[in-house]
Specification:
With 452 residues, this protein is an alpha/beta fold. The protein is built from 12 helices and 10 strands. Helix 6 packs parallel to helix 7 and helix 7 crosses helix 8. Keywords: Signal.
């Protein structure tokens, strides 16, 4: 018999022992299942289920039973809760005190309706039928006695002021700015109804484009229409463009100026033939710096030709600039207040600006035009004065009086003496608004050295 080494015998013994243990193990252990023991000593077999989502799932019988019991308990609790809500009792609010919430503290609680009172049906398909209200008929109250209103005194009809037909006419010729100038002249001579203003204006017109509007023909029409006392011309804003018959001449070039001067002379000729005084109103500054520089050049040409023809050039430039000589859309008005004088386009005038523009022409016209004297108006009134207001009060008050230079010195009287010096001795100190001399030794005596 062959004797094996000791180490071999030990290995064979271990292999035989392992084989015996495997044969004695139950089938569940051989298949890879394991048991779970609890305190009560009972054992539950784990159940194998088919793999789901790519992995094997093992579920205990006790876990499945626990979930079944929990679902049954939840269903029972939901049933009891629904039954309590149907009976109007919620056990979850049993221990909560009946206190108002946040909204109820702000707006108060809604009052519960009276069960015996009428309420509309709220079920679907219900037709609301309100009970007929019981109306109590009341006897109408007796009308209060109406006191007879006192009979008003008969009004005495005021005699209408006799309309004065214009006898002196002023022709205003020019573009849209001349149209506003004519309105301002009408307001300026409101105290002289015998002066009428005739308009010969055309918007967007000028002396360059005679194909659009011919101002020379308009001047002849104004002269031949009837007696004309004065002619006021305001044109030139739309003349910053080349002539149609000389397109190669740039505006304000030497050749262009010669043609423009000829147009000015042609416009002045009809009035010079009829000896009608002409007042040419210069152009005011524009918001555009380039346009303002062109206006200066056009004003220089117009001034030269108008004065050579014996007319009057009215310079209005200083009335529409600020203290630096720049364009000013807001400035002093005739009533002393500061207001808007120009429109948003930077060319046209507002109503107050047109009135200020007309004020410059008004000053020149009043040098030769004399309205009717008040004595003539009084002679036309009734001898006993009539029932109406006197003609002095009926006349409209002019918007502005003569301009007074505040920075000039005191005016002298005809004799050469100052008015204040001539009248100072005739008026007491209280009327001259001067304090009387202080008594010697009084606290307001500031003479030095002090008098005893």
């Amino acid at each position: 018999m062959i004797r094996l080494p000791r180490i071999v015998r030990v290995v064979l013994s271990l292999l035989l022992a392992a084989a015996g243990l495997a044969a004695a193990a139950p089938a569940s252990a051989q298949e890879g299942y394991y048991r779970r023991s609890y305190d009560d000593g009972r054992a539950y077999e784990r159940v194998y289920r088919e793999p789901r989502y790519g992995r094997r799932v093992y579920e205990d019988e006790d876990d499945r039973a626990f979930r079944q019991r929990m679902r049954a308990y939840q269903r029972e609790q939901a049933y009891r809760r629904e039954a309590a809500q149907r009976r109007g009792y919620d056990p979850r609010r049993r221990a909560e005190p009946d206190r108002p919430n946040f909204i109820q503290r702000l707006f108060g609680r809604r009052t519960q309706p009276d069960p015996g009172a009428w309420s509309a049906r709220t079920d679907p398909g219900a037709v609301e039928v309100r009970p007929r209200p019981n109306r109590v008929r009341r006897k109408p109250a007796a009308p209060a006695p109406v006191e007879a209103a006192p009979t008003p005194a008969p009004e005495i009809a005021q005699p209408a002021a006799p309309a004065v037909a214009p006898t002196t006419f002023v022709a205003v010729i020019g573009d849209s700015i001349a149209d506003g100038l004519a309105t301002g002249l009408g307001d300026a001579f409101a105290d002289a109804p015998e002066l009428g203003v005739k308009r010969y204006v055309k918007a967007n017109a000028g002396l360059v484009r005679t194909d659009y509007h011919d101002f020379v023909a308009a001047a002849r029409e104004a002269v031949s229409a009837g007696p004309l006392a004065y002619a006021v011309i305001d044109v030139g804003v739309n003349d910053r463009q080349p002539f149609l018959d000389a397109r190669d001449l740039a505006p304000l070039s030497p050749g262009w100026k010669r043609l423009y001067v000829a147009r000015i002379d042609a416009l002045l000729a009809p009035f010079r033939e009829k000896n009608v005084p002409v007042y040419w109103v210069g152009l005011a500054p524009s918001e555009s710096v380039r346009a303002s520089s062109d206006h200066i050049a056009l004003n220089a040409l117009a001034r030269e030709r108008v004065e050579a023809a014996g007319g009057t050039y009215v310079d209005v430039w200083e009335g529409f600039v600020d203290e630096n000589g720049d364009y000013a859309a807001v400035g002093p008005q005739l009533d002393g207040r500061t207001g808007r004088l120009r429109l948003d386009d930077g060319v046209h005038f507002s109503k107050a600006g047109a009135r200020k523009l007309a004020h410059y022409v008004e000053q020149e016209l009043r040098k030769t035009f004399k309205p009717k004297a008040p004595a003539e108006a009084l002679a036309a009134a009734p001898a006993d004065g009539g029932l109406g207001a006197p003609p002095e009060a009926a006349r409209p008050k002019p918007l502005a009086g003569p301009l007074v230079v505040l920075t000039a010195g005191p005016r002298a009287s005809e004799g050469g003496a100052l008015l204040d010096a001539a009248q100072k001795g005739d008026r007491p100190a209280s009327e001259r608004r001067e304090a009387p001399e202080a008594a010697p030794g009084r606290i307001d005596d500031h003479r030095w050295p002090p008098t005893p």
